[in-house]
Amino acid sequence: MIHFALSDFLPALPEMFLAAAALALLILGVCQGDRSAREIAWLSVLALVVTFALVAAPLHAHGPERQISFYGMFVTDGFGAFSKMLVLAGSALSLIVAMRYNEQEGIARPEYPVLVLLATVGMMAMVSANDLISLYVGLELQSLALYVLAAFQRDTLRSTEAGLKYFVLGALASGMLLYGASMVYGFAGTTAFDTLARDFADGGTASIGLVIGIVLIAVGLAFKVSAVPFHMWTPDVYEGAPTPVTAFFSVAPKIAAMSLFIRVMVGPFGGLLVEWRQVIWFIAVASMLLGAFAALNQTNIKRLMAYSSIGHVGYALIGLAAGSAIGVRGILVYLAIYLFMNIGTFTVILCMRRDGKLVENIDELAGLSRTQPGMALALAIFMFSMAGIPPLAGFFAKLYVFLAAIDAGLYGLAVIGVLASVVGAFYYLRIVKLMYFDEPKGAFDKPIGREMQAVLVLTALVILFFFAWPGLLVDGADAVASALFSG
Length: 487
What we know:
Order of helices and strands: HHHEEHHHHHHHHHHHEEHHHHHH
Strand content: under 5%
Number of strands: 4
Structural class: mainly alpha
Radius of gyration: 21 Å
């Protein structure tokens, strides 16, 4: 007989609140219809802010304590709280920048913010998974909502195609992950992360079947973070999905999946670092190189951002290959900075309208500094940051993961990362050259909305002045990364 006390549910209070808020807003949307779309979008942002506060409150009061609940399937700790706060921030910012676009494109429906909330619940459950079963449940809750969001602009062929591609390839990746989990269970006799960690902590050997199971789990997670060679869906889905959905895909799900990747590889399989490090090394190198070279000839800015995101995943995976607290700290810092760089860039992309129509060609940015200097300055800050130019935040993001690789003795990986970063700088700086040195093709539509202006200013200031107070982020990431390894 299973008995639950009220205290057993408290660790999952943020998730339960957000799920209840999503259901309440769904009912409100059904009752009021499409006219309530903006109201429900703002209420969804409010729900995400409250959830953020619920996640952060225990950290402020007691520090990053580790709690296990739901019969060992759900864990709350400093690492999970840090990752969840990044996910919630990404979801809230992507909802804010989506409002105006959805209204202009005639897809302002209350289902959109509700789907974002449900996907966010799944992401939070993923990050707190302490068992292969709860991992899969959280992953699927996230994925099912994301499949619908990719095809949300259902009257356009591109969006429908994006949703279908994402669904088919996502189902394949989920199947591989599930098969890997079943192999781990078959050869290890458990799906619990804590038990697996104990079994391998003392240098226990892994059978071939178990290693294959771990590799299949890594394959499923690599698909979710769009790492090479499981990236094939990314350019098409990024280009075909509505732009606010692409902005959402590029931050919140990616941060959640990367956090889950860390928890799975460092937690239950941390004692098998030698066995899985070579797999992570390979996909990190392949992602960095493909992200650097494949983006060189792109003409569509959303496809360019897709390849850029693949490259950034490769840099983040350097920290995972290090397999240390310093490496995890580097990934968390990278993800936090990546969140602001990406949301800021997609906010500019959402402002690329001429005569009421969205334009996606990179060449359309020509001469932007003369027609809209503020927008050009913000985009230049994001491009320089993504290229890793000091003293912008993107430089520090790469610095911390490269330092982790050097600390772990992975000198070749760090060198490849630096070289890939140099190649990738070409297409980022090309955009800056277009904006400041080419003749304008015509001004974009001027009124971009106060919400988007606020997001643009916020993200640009964070990237620009990160160097002044890096400790605010780095110290927190260091504390939760150390706690993950000591716990």
